[in-house]
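Researcher: Checking consistency across runs. Here is Decarboxylating 6-phosphogluconate dehydrogenase again:
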Amino acid sequence: MHIGLIGLGKMGFNMRERLRRNGIDVTGFDRNPVVSDVMSLTELVAELPSPRILWLMVPAGEVTDAVVHELSEVLSPGDLVIDGGNSRYDADIRNAEKLALTGVRFMDCGVSGGVWGRENGYGLMAGGASEDIALAMPVLDALRPAGERARSFVHAGAVGAGHYAKMIHNGIEYGLMQAYAEGYELLSGKDIITDVPGVMRAWQDGTVIRSWLLDLMVKALDQDPELSRVAGYVEDSGEGRWTVEEAVANGIPAPVITAALYARFMSRQEDSPAMKMVAALRNQFGGHSVRAADEGLPPGTTPAATQETAVPPAVDETGSPE
Ligand SMILES: O=C(CO)[C@H](O)[C@H](O)COP(=O)(O)O
């Protein structure tokens, strides 16, 4: 089998390697000529046998939509486009409809495994028509882990279902990472705990919370025991937000994933306007001291301006301060 792979970034580059190693001919295209096998999409399409199979591994959103648009102009009826990126499921439905206008088939495939997938294989979640998935099966087999085939692939449903499953996977990823990270902080802050990485190593085998993410946490601490080279600033690529949006749209409670998403937003604030306001309000109603914003003032100092405007601590009928 010979396929085209569009997008040779961290994921696409490694997937090309794994596919080739497992007997799939791959012609890769990327805007970066250093990694690209061909110079244009047109050249890529001309190289492939019919029906052509094109696997997209490009950023979700505008870039994916633009590539799908370009492909809709150069592909032929019966060709198959597989979106393997992290697209939102409703974008799949739109892109499938667009390609269907020219008889081009579409399926989506959520891919999990990160940069380790080249060696370990990828977990795959596909959405689309059964005959399209059957056509792509040799590619899917080459990507997923060799020994665990039954457990590392699902035909999750219609177009969009693969990415819906991957979106929920990533939402769970947010919650799991946040729980492990909070456990790490609690351990790190306790004076009677003298070996934080040791506790985590002891969790790696046999315990209820053993997992690959835990193994990666131990690895991160082995490389940088105090995490001194990492700032507490966390980006997000969209799937956590979409998971929370789905929870709201369907009235399904997802408090853990939502809190984990918001923790990332908080990580990007040097000083939170909301928490400044909470501090100011406590000061207003209860006369509670605020920590000075001015650098150099010791923690707990009440700034002069606040002292002037602070009301006396309120007292309720029982005589207790509010
Ligand atoms: O799909 C993934 C892992 O499963 C990607 O690494 C993804 O980019 C991670 O999401 P985020 O950037 O929102 O943390």
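Researcher: Does this match what you'd expect to see?
Model: One thing to look at in this run: Residues 303-311, 313-322 have pLDDT under 50 and may be disordered.
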